[in-house]
Amino acid sequence: MLELYKKLISSKIFKDWKSRNKDSFLCSFVLIDNPQFDFYNKNDTMTSFIIDKEIEINEDEEIFNKSKLLPLDIENIKSTKEEILKIVKQKYQDEKFIKRILILQNPKEPVWNITLITKSLKLLNMQIDMNKKILSERFEPLTNFMKRVK
Question: How many angstroms separate the CA atoms of 36 and 51, rounded?
Fold first, then answer.
């Protein structure tokens, strides 16, 4: 993650954007299909940098969760995604996960917000802090999260 971040901040696309957005700050690292770094902008929007073969930028995106966003100091993150996923695997050994969304953010302190979908369509959501302590955990059928249409 740190290597990817260094690759991003040394890129021309990032430097050009940052020169126009000096007050923006890193607020999350997202891992779905490709790694993504999100920056909070002072106009209450988000700019995302998706790292693939090329670096893709998505500017001025609407923020879905309007809670206060704090800067994320990626160089001081103590637990890696591999360590966090190991905790999940140990706890849910019998589950086969087919989709995963990992988000590193800093609501009050840095936490990993993990969402995993199983082969049997159950959803696991966990928050794990930098000391590898589980802060919250929810594991139930995906249908419990869907709205029923009449």
Answer: 6
